[in-house]
Amino acid sequence: MSDFLPALFAALASPRRLQVLEWLRDPRAHFPPQRDGDLVDDGVCVVFLARKLRVRQPTATAHLQVLARAGLVTSKRVGQWTFYKRDEARIRALKRSISRDL
Amino acid sequence: MSDFLPALFAALASPRRLQVLEWLRDPRAHFPPQRDGDLVDDGVCVVFLARKLRVRQPTATAHLQVLARAGLVTSKRVGQWTFYKRDEARIRALKRSISRDL
DNA sequence: CGAAGACATAGGTACTTAGCTATATAGCTC
DNA sequence: GAGCTATATAGCTAAGTACCTATGTCTTCG
Prior knowledge:
The structure is a homodimer. The first copy, chain A, has helices spanning 5-12, 15-25, 27-30, 46-53, 57-69, 88-101, and strands at 44-45, 73-78, 81-86. By secondary structure, the first copy, chain A, is of the alpha+beta class. Chain A binds chain B through residues 1, 3, 5-7, 9-10, 12-15, 18-19, 21-22, 91, 94-95, 98-99, 101-102, and chain B through 1, 3, 5-7, 9-10, 12-15, 18-19, 21-22, 91, 94-95, 98-99, 101-102. The first copy, chain A, binds a DNA duplex through residues 10, 14, 16, 45-47, 55-59, 61-63, 65, 77, 79-82.
């Protein structure tokens, strides 16, 4: 049994984090354009996510860090912004692990 | 987004519960024969699981109830025993949900 | 340069979870 | 029926999680 699975499942065991992953599947459908980064190519900035989640920014940051540690999203710092996007390749690999090991 | 996913992932976000699911994939490989129920057809009784997990029986019961509420295992009461086994059909369906929604 | 904005970190509180012991319930077995 | 066994429930404590506010750091912009 792969030993990263508990952390992966813990990351996914949160309605807010699942919601973020769903929004990030099609960022343009859910967020306004950004000035210094492309929603799809670069990711979505923390303040947008915090606002849409209706939580404070540090709370959003914490959720995003959990997702990042689980390998579900990547972050990219550009100037004063941090953009988060799904790591689609890794997500595919994780799904395969789940299909195999569960 | 399916609303049962958080509870499912929470159930899976535990090394002990993942271990139980793994053992139950091939009960004969991991548990001695039982007197009043077949390991494969009926499932594995709580005391066996508690012993192998190295936790007390009420703790094991709690874990198994979490797995059952998530639809991953079913329980079957036979006399004084409660046997738990994987719900393979449901597990397949849950894997499909994960593949689709994640 | 100074102010404002974006993000991360620190620290506190409320809630949840995982383990335990003690006890209740129900079925065997003699 | 008495006593034993298997399981469930109740209730406790310790640890983890999710939110918040306050603050620090870095970047941009006037």
